[in-house]
Amino acid sequence: MLKIVEIFYSIQGEGTQVGVPSIFIRLHGCNLACNFCDELLHKGEYASLSFDEVLERIKVFPSMHVIITGGEPTIYNLNGFIEYLQAYMYSVAVETNGYNFSNISNANWVTYSPKAWDVIEKYGYDEVKFVVSKDSDVEKILAFKSYKPIFIQPQNEIDRPNKENVNFCVEFVKAHPQFILSVQLHKFLGVE
């Protein structure tokens, strides 16, 4: 059984796969309590659903691209669920803070968004996303090197962009072109 907060269909608004029509499966729970979290639903009510029940809910959408998000998905071992979806030809991406990469090792794509920048993992993911505000200690991420895409994403409000942080991040990536701007396109478009 999976603790499902919501299942919805939209476009991916972040990272390498921006613009891809995707089915989002939001799981309940997180190992952190970030003061800038822009998705608080993972702390509320949820339904316990079997793999088959989840499949029935996602089959109504035309996309074959699933994104598992939270909260923090890797607090659960999701490898069996990922394999289950892949057996039905779904491509499965997971967004994680890096709590336990082994719990999602079967995913087709992993977006790693570390919240503490003192120790940043080097392996287990396909792209890195740093959530940055104008007050962030960016010196910690300037030292990070990777051959994988490294995104700088403005710390936004729950329902809209934060223009100050967006402007800071635009100038930051212009000054440090090893990074790529990711703006949470869905918040600019006003879609879920």
TrEMBL record:
**Cofactor (UniProt):** [4Fe-4S] cluster; S-adenosyl-L-methionine; Mg(2+)
The EC number(s) attached to this protein equal 4.3.99.3
Positions bound to S-adenosyl-L-methionine: F36, C37, D38, G71, S113, P114, K115
Family matches, as SUPFAM superfamilies? Radical SAM enzymes
Task: Name the enzyme's class.
Answer: lyase
Q: Which reaction does it catalyse?
A: 6-carboxy-5,6,7,8-tetrahydropterin + H(+) = 7-carboxy-7-carbaguanine + NH4(+)
**One Pfam family, short name please?**
Radical_SAM
Annotated Radical SAM core domain residues: 17-192
**Any one Gene Ontology BP term:** tRNA queuosine(34) biosynthetic process
Q: InterPro entries annotated for this entry? A: 7-CO-7-deazaguanine_synth-like, Aldolase_TIM, rSAM, rSAM_sf
Residues holding substrate:
I11, Q12, G13, R26, T69
Entry note: cofactor: Binds 1 [4Fe-4S] cluster. The cluster is coordinated with 3 cysteines and an exchangeable S-adenosyl-L-methionine. Binds 1 S-adenosyl-L-methionine per subunit.
- For this UniProt record, give its keywords in alphabetical order, as a comma-separated list: 4Fe-4S, Iron, Iron-sulfur, Lyase, Magnesium, Metal-binding, Queuosine biosynthesis, S-adenosyl-L-methionine
Q: How does it assemble?
A: Homodimer.
Q: Which PANTHER family match?
A: 7-CARBOXY-7-DEAZAGUANINE SYNTHASE
Family (UniProt) = Belongs to the radical SAM superfamily. 7-carboxy-7-deazaguanine synthase family.
Name used for this protein in its record: 7-carboxy-7-deazaguanine synthase
